[in-house]
Amino acid sequence: MNNDKVIQVESLTKMFGDFIAVNDITFDVNKGEIFGFLGANGAGKTTAMKMLIGISKPTFGKAHVAGFDVFTDAENIKKNIGYMSQKFALYDDLTVKENITFFGGIYGLSRKRIKEKANTLIEELGLGNVANQLVGSLPLGWKQKLSFSVSLIHDPKIVFLDEPTGGVDPITRRQFWELIYKAANQGTTIFVTTHYMDEAEYCDRVSIMVNGKIEALDTPKKLKEQFKAANMNDVFLKLARG
Amino acid sequence: MLPIIFVLPLLQLIILSNAATFEVKNIKFGYIDNDQSSTSRALIEKFNASTYFDVLTDFSSEAFSNAAMLKGEVDVVVEIPRYFERDLQKEKHINLGVTINAIDGAAAGVENVYITQIVQDFNQHLKVDLMQISDKQVQPINIETIPLFWYNETLNYKTFMVPGILVLLVTMITLFLSGMNIVREKEIGTLEQINVTPIKKSQFIIGKLFPFWVIGMGLLTIGLIIAKIIFDVPMVGSLALMYFYTSIYILVILGIGLFISNFTDTQQQAMFIAWFFMVIFILMSGLFTPIESMPKWAQIITEFNPIKYFVEVMRMVMLKGSGFMDILPQLLKTLLYALVMNGLAVWSYKKTT
Q: Which domain, by its residues, includes B101?
């Protein structure tokens, strides 16, 4: 197995009854890469992602994440990945600090380590004033940044972000991408789905899913050349319309 | 939420324990005195003196008393025959006609016993006839009972009901809280976040159980304090034993709740299922109706009713002072139940779909 490839997917398929949600997809993701996973609503992005993070069993195909098989070793995958869902999924009725402590605890961090993590994390995000406030009372943008930081609390090899910037203002979106870059620079692989084509430009490589299949996969620059488009938006429209 | 969890059940305990009584009081009493003698008046005076009988109506004939009973103005009519005094003195034997409104069969039974006791008390040689309004057949009964009420000598229904109602409240709160819990996290989306962490299934279930277990034990404690202070319920047995049993019992209920929670997708579904079991558990627990009088098949079902065991144990330990060996059968069954339900709860919690 190639150590530089942290995600290896081969002919991965998920069927719900007769419906093929994810149809025979094959791709690799390199270590430290920001991998954009694009597609229209209902194209199968979230389903594919759920198989990779070990909460949905593939119907068939092969997939290794962080070196572990998704069929047999899902729990080991979970130790090595972070995940941030499209729905905000920290506990609204816990404070910022309590959420950090809770998830730190679940990932088996020591008390001391959790305390350090909590302090740096709160400082980096500028949440010092609201550290003891219930997360439910924070604005969405803040929550999303917190959620991202919590998904990185155990220094995972790969972090999966499912539409992390949905419904967030442009400034916060920009700050969010700064966080993503920072994590990537520290060697974390980023696997991100998005609907914003300007965000797709930030990715090292981009795949575009249409009706459960990956129709294009390359760097944004090469995709634009290939489809003779001025920007990623045009690339996406050309593909999604068929 | 926490104040609601504690305040509401304790209010229920206070209200229900006072209201849910099987004592038949304020019986509307009427009589037909065909004798108008000093003996007959003395008998009526006996009823008048009783605290159970309330309104005394003097009917001139059976026609009036029947009409009154039809309208519900009277529950019990005692008819004193002519020559009551004379026959009683001469023959030492007389029949008395008693008519009871038996729509509520249980109450009618209790009223019959009250009347019999009063009459027997009045004269050892007097016999009471129970006249049934439907067929007017006179069925003489001559019962002599010497009641000895053990463990609850004053027949105080609160003594009987308070432990039972406390059991219901502890059960209800812990079942609903645990039943709503995991499914609520499914709805919010936090469960998915938990599922992508390496947390073990058993760790997750134990983490879910523990806070509700503490709440359940807290409720029991406050409930026992109220039982002692407000209702003065005797606590003959060992408190430690009561707590030991309850600590296992709550695990059964929490296991059932979490099992329900795992199988449902919305809180509404969980609520309906929890209610379904709760109603069956309550009505088949032996708290309100004795299990011995249920049909055979129903008695078999009650074997699977955890509330039944809890009610039995609480009454045994609190009122009779039963020890560890006495409640061992219930304890073992509850323990087995707890193991099975929590095993199912862990098993049914799936981190992958």
A: 27-150
